[in-house]
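ok trying this again, last paste got cut off
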Amino acid sequence: EEYLQATRTLRAIFADSSRFVVHDALPPVPAFGDEGAANHTRFAAAHGAAGVEFFVYGRAEFDPSAPSPKKYPARQTMEASQAVARLHGLDPARTVFASQNPDVIDQGVFHNDVIAVGNGNVLFYHDQAFADEAGTLDALRRALGTVDTDLVPVRVASSQVPVADAVASYLFNSQLLTRPDGRMALVVPHECRENAAVSRYLAALVASGGPIDELLEFDLRQSMRNGGGPACLRLRVALTDGEAQAMHGGVIMNDTLHGLLAAWVEKHYRDRVEPKDLADPQLAIECATALEELERILGLPGLYDLS
């Protein structure tokens, strides 16, 4: 199971139990469908400051009257989001739960990060993102008021960018980053430029005088073809200097590590895998050999169970 390896990996990286706790995954049952950072945003004046945790869910397992999609399954449950908040000991006054609009789930918005993205105190979102747009914004404003921070919503209307164009271009599956000058840059895939409605909107956005005034565009076609945009690289962990020193530093990306990982991929990855290859014992040997070398590169012996 993927979540078991993810837990093992995170506990190896954040091994100092006096500073870090890596919780077990929620039970793998439908009531606790949880897809993590794709449906969670943290708002704050700065990454190290007190802030508000924002959880978006697609259905409530035990409330048949709650909004839910009709065509596609909702991957995140309210119960899972509430369980994560409870297990992490979050302050209810600084925690907001919101229902995703079931209509956009049925249009292909399988995660909230396909229709909204947050950074700092800015929420960049589509007007169809939430089942109750006004109620969601009011709840966020009230919660942020407890930490003396104002919410800055950047709303994209359906008349500017239809939901279908937002999904096709992955406009909201972007990285919203704060520059040293305090302004924000939006990291988007090439598909945003190639979509006429999205391209027009983004040109107007950066010229509008709002918090987002720079676009950074990348060719992510291989990732996009597998359903992954810029946001799929995001899992923010805010650390003090002491905590950063206490975690395992061998996983922090730099030019040296990038070179080692690129060479590892070139050495070990097959350029294609067909169904019949899954019956070839040599493939299993190749995988084990590659993972042993990856353990050495990262400085994490025993990271994988290769017995």
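PB: full thing came through this time. The two ends are 16 Å apart (CA to CA).
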